[in-house]
């Protein structure tokens, strides 16, 4: 993967700031965003990869930054409401214009995710360190390339159906958990001219983003949502004259 | 179709109030909503069919009304912004809880529609009375039952691609226009526990809702989105104990 | 559900003929087809429900029978190859013309199923009596109406991903098993003018078709695939003159 | 697009052999396959691009050739039945194992296409040199990258709905014709581990494959269906022991 991409890993950063859980600083000395950025850099050595959090100036999501971002990864959990609506609308506009979005784990409840999908994005959860198995169900999809089936994640928060999302464009991964629940854990959506990938493994209690297979999925996801050639402009209403396409 | 349903035909009613176009009062003496309600009553003689507009108390969309509505049809054009956000959120909650929604023509830009879909829902348009042909592309779908292909609508506003919507669950109808544009004119979506049908023919300048085939499509659409047995509650997050499903 | 339907429950009948497993005669004194037919009759008291097997004259699948059948349910396992190709082609023609098909369990390898889907329809399996949990993931679908989530089936054969099918029109149920595998256990397809529902629970070793929730799913599936008003003719090539639709 | 790919452009070659229409030799001195191969070579200068026809030894589709082919393009019309069933089964096995397939124009009736899709793939047609407009409806898809909307093809055979195919994974292009018909002219399917793209413009009567925009679509399609890293093996049934994935 030699594509030159501009990748922004956004994490609210609250668990890191509070060192909550107490293992956070040991597991993720540079934050979850740092670990993800490092992993992506190995897959995309030529990419320009940056990170930002709630504490960054302008949340790290100002117009100029977004305009030059090919792929935005988003992790959020405790502080969804601290992202102002105008920032969310800005991000939405860029996604509809072609910026790729990779939404991670508890970002199912991020404002940007529910706004793009239109549903509650609610789900079942239980945090008891159950084993998660991530099974590939669409092996022809680029995001499944080179990924083991199942990925075995020894400990994870359980996310279970009903996951209240629209029917995805592609259902790539389905997870099961020790307790028997299942979850559509890897799904894609297209919205406007943009592509979205949601991947559920990644709770702050466990070192999930250090798992080599999870890193591969994220790298594949970044490659798939990226459209560096896409003209960044969301679709707009037009009133063309008859046969103006012949001009 | 003998199902007993509660159907609410909502129309902003601005074109009717202003008699704009000047043919409105002649074409639709009881408004477009009146004509639609009459047509549906012939298909569903046992249904309780009511109408409401922007001028109705509480916009005709208060909690009690929505709670007892199986299917809401929505026509809007000039006054999308006059529907308050809290009303839109209420309607969204009911759709996600199982109320059927049939969005008509320029309702592609209604707040409730863009909020449920997450995209701009923009499109091309040109209002020169072109002929619209509505072709069936999914004949196995209940909404296509008994519908001629193509439906020939002598004069209509042109709506053309790109129609910025998410990939629909079902693509049932595709239209072409005299000028050569095409449009996904009949599409379904599921959101939460609810079903949505969008049907584009129906500009205020032409007597489209008197067309028998258009009426049949609307009747089919109402039948398909209706879930009178569905427990009206949008999906919500839960935190179940291990194997609580055995209880 | 008062629809008057013609329903044919087809079972190869080999496990019944051989009383294999030895519990068969006790579990299903009238065969699995008999149990299914009885269950459906309770949901559709006005329906004409018949059964047929490999041993029936003409396999019970002659032209006249199919022409008057609204819904065909199919169970097969040991003897897929004993169904002649011309019978399979006849059934395919009727499905494409609008006859509903409900394919059950090991019918994933029935000639009619792989022929309609175009893939291998292969899967993982293990028959150790694991618990199967059937989770609803599309609660707005008619086939999910009134169905508990999860359905708990105490003992079943494991069917696991990768299930090599085309992306279904609707993914309604996902199952998990004690061993951790997952399976898209309830899926729909449209082919031609016909509707297909595949439901995987139902191994011959266990009394699955006596499970009230499984019976409800089958009844819902029958109701959803049935199109008694559909003109039974598969799509065919035509060469229309310009604007012949105006005639 | 610098990917090194093995591309095989297959054309039955009957129109070329018979110089039918009489303009064939002038329009396509190296056959339609030759023109397509030349166009692809410009987009993929490093690719190994070969052509084959019905007259090639082993139809140019022997096991060894297919095993080393990343993408197979297929044009056929007069002689679908001259491709033996065992060749079709071989091609199907390779597609299910990950070989990309780009099916062109009248290949909608090629055995390999109907076998992979399971439907009649019938359609309306009329060959009067009508103008075809090809509109993009999924701008986020790689096959739409850099493609004008609409593509204007001055003269083409009309292909019209109902096109009897399964719901595609992605609907990328919809065409309209002078006579008012519409057609889903660019659609994708995944089958097994393989990807399929069907693109309808390309009748033998008109120089469609010299159209720069059509060439771009074909190049995009080749890039999208290609999976040079995919292990070429169609999915197969397995009987894994409990938790064998931990080994």
TrEMBL record, chains A, B, C, D:
Domain (ThuA-like) spans 7-225
- Return the Pfam families for the record: ThuA (PF06283)
InterPro entries from the xrefs?
Answer: Class_I_gatase-like (IPR029062), ThuA-like (IPR029010), Trehalose_catabolism_ThuA_prok (IPR009381)
Q: Which Gene3D superfamilies match?
A: 3.40.50.880
Please give the name of this protein: Trehalose utilization protein
